[in-house]
Every structure is written in structure tokens, then in C-alpha cells.
Amino acid sequence: MSIVVEKVNLLESKRDRKRFINLSWNIYQKDKNWVPQLKMELEKMFNKKHPFYQTADVAFWIATKDGKDVGRIMAIVNHNYIKFHDEKVGHYGFFEAIDDKDVFRALFNTSEEWLKSQGMEKVQGPFNPSTNYECGNLILGHGERPVLMMPYNPEYYQTNIEELGFDKAKDLIAYHLDSNFEMPEIIRKVSERAENKNNITYRTVSKKNWSKEIDLMYEIYNDAWEHNWGFVPMTKDEFYGTAGDLKMVADERLILFAMVEGKEVGFIVALPDLNQVFHQVPKGNLFPTGLMKLLNRKKYMTGVRVLTMGVKQEYRKYGLASILYQRCHQNILKYPQYKDIEMSWILEDNLNMNKPLIRMNANPYRKYRIFEKGL
Questions:
Q1: Same domain flag for 216 and 230
Q2: Is residue 372 part of a domain?
Q3: Residue-number span of the structural domain to which 213 is assigned
Q4: Which of 5, 46, 55, 168 is deepest in the core (most CB within 10 A)?
Q5: CATH number of the domain encompassing residue 55
Q6: How, if at all, do strands 255-260 and 200-204 pair?
């Protein structure tokens, strides 16, 4: 029962892309909580024209055992990350494998050797393919379906990866709230004082002016996140490509700008949890029936994911994190179809983001780990 690790070329070969993408179904077909990603989105991710590859070198492998595809991995040299952090850290991502320690070892050993050949001194992951997309290995909260654009994996991943010498680099937290929770009085009062003192106002985004809205978000984004652990600056092409994808699923009523003296200085993005629809598209294809389910998504969706929030650094002292949480919650309450809110993901040591959620009695019900290992 020999294991063979085969290097594949996803960026050029449709056949290799199909094999790599379809391997997930070998791992999860009996897992009732798994939500398959849309194959068309994965095809786009693994297309050489995707802007991510303008600033990254990558390699892909598929492991076979007895002639069957049983695992996969992507190795990443993200030049934007290396330049920004000034450290020779490679990444791995899009990892999947059956519960077989030899398969894990073969895939990781192969990808690590490639990263070393590229001059890397450490490996971190999983990043699919960076912190600007899905990332993290689920280590707490396997009993439920993941929400939109959050990763999911079997429990055995953690043990098998740690046995290969990986340690914790950072944990990412997902919080749950019922939409009708009571906002603590202290947050309401602090928010009101800050709003009045600093002339803070709000507005929702407009899809009619989407390109201008994205210009504003891009300016805020790179300023707001640059000191966060693992931050990778996005190129304009990459940011706009991601924003274009989000436009199709966004509910503009749930995306807010915070303004000081009429100037946009922060934003918060909440999206309907489309995984409640995608769960009913088990083959990952929109056609022929998945598209109808997507178009009629309102009848399926009761959840919201607050997936990103950013405030320009010079305005952090205004308490805008708490204020944006409160205003976003007030907006969600206007639409009673939404019952559940997930705030994710949040760095475990980001006190400005975690403290308000703890005061709201939010439940830290899921945890995701970024692993690391010296090469």
C-alpha cells in the first residue's frame, strides 16, 4: 500500500484542477456538517489569472494510495508577506487528507522540502491562500456547520499535524450571538458619548456606487490592519477582485461606514450566511438547481457573519470598534429573518476587538489555529 506524492500544475491544467478540487468529496462525503465550496469559485482561485499569483510563487501536490487520491497540499511563497514582515516564512494551504499519518507526513515533508528550496526558514498555515481569505485549522466547534467563508476540517487534523512537529502560532476566535441579545448599557453610553463628542455619523454602502465604496474600503483596509499579526497587504487588483465577488452576495443594508466630520474612517461588513444555501448544494455546482436555491436564498438564511471591521489607526482612540458593533447590531435587528450572528475571525490577543464582545456575553464557540514549524 504505497503512497505516491505527485506534483500537479493547477494553474495550467484543467485536469489537475479538477482532481485537486474533487478530492474534498473523498474526505467529507459522509460528514453532515461539511459545506462544499462552489466549484466555480475554486476554479477561479486556481486560475493563473487570479491576482494573488502576481505576488506569490506556489506549488501543488496530490497524494495517492492504491491508485486513489487521498490527500492534497499547496505550498506558498507570498512575496507580499515576506517583504512586509521581513522574514522568510512560507505557508501551506488547501490541505486535505484521509486519517492516515503516513499521508500527512508524505504531503508535509514534500511541501516543506520545496519551501526550503525557495529559501524559507519557517512554515505557517493553513492559509487558503493568505489571511485575506480563509485560514486556520478548526480545533474547537466541530459539531456544527461552518458559516460563510470560514474553514472546516475533521478533528484528526490537529493531532496528526502536531505529531509532525508543528506548534501553535496563533489562535483565531469565532463568537456567536443571538440577534436579539441585549447590548450592555456601558457600551451604549460610551458609544453615545463618543458619537456626540466626535461628530460620528454612519451610512450604509450603495451598490450603485460600488467602485467608489471599494476605493474607500481599500484605503481604510490597508491602514487599519497593517499592525495585525499575519497581515498581508492586498494589491488593488486582489482587493477589487474579492470585493467584486462579495457584491453578488452582499446585503448593502448590513455594510456600514463610520464617518468623523463627514469623512469615512472605518467600516464593518456583515454578510448573509450563504452556507445555509450551499449546504443544500452537495456537489458544489450552481447548475442546474443550485442557482435557483441561491436566487431564493431569503427563505433559507437566518444567519449573518460579521466578517471584517476596520478603523483607521488615527481614529482608534474614538472607541469606534464598540460603536460599529452596536450600530451593526441595530441594523441587523431591523430585519427579523436574521436570528444568529457570528463574529469571525478575531485574533485571540486583539483586545480592542475581543473586549466589547466579552462585555456582550458573546460565546467564543469556535477556535481556529495557525500552526508553525521551523524548516
A1: yes
A2: no
A3: 177-367
A4: 46
A5: 3.40.630.30
A6: antiparallel
Q: Which residue among 147, 173, 199 closes a domain?
A: 173
pLDDT tens, residue by residue, 59-85:
999 999 999 999 999 999 999 999 999
Instruction: Tell me which residue has cell 499569483.
Output: 53
How does DSSP assign 303-371, residue by residue?
EEEEEEEEE-GGGGGGTHHHHHHHHHHHHHHT-TT--EEEEEEEETT-HHHHHHHHHTT-EEEEEEEEE
Q: How confident is the model at residue 1 (pLDDT cuts 50, 70, 90)?
A: low
Residue 88 has pLDDT above 90, yes or no: yes
Using the predicted structure, report yes or no on whether residue 282 has a pLDDT greater than 80.
no
- 138, 153, 173 - which closes a domain: 173
- Burial of 125: CB neighbours in 10 Å, binned 0-12, 13-18, 19+: buried
User: Do 199 and 332 fall within a single domain?
Assistant: yes
State in Å, rounded, how far the first CA of the chain is from the last one: 29
CA-based nearest residue to 143, from 158, 157, 154, 134: 154
CA atoms within 13 A on the CB side of 158: 16
Domain match, 168 and 221 both: no
Q: Are residues 191 and 210 in the same domain?
A: yes
User: Quick one: pLDDT band at residue 298, thresholds 50, 70, 90?
Assistant: low
Give the SS3 label for residue 156. helix
- Average pLDDT taken over every residue of the chain: 91
Residue with cell 474533487: 22
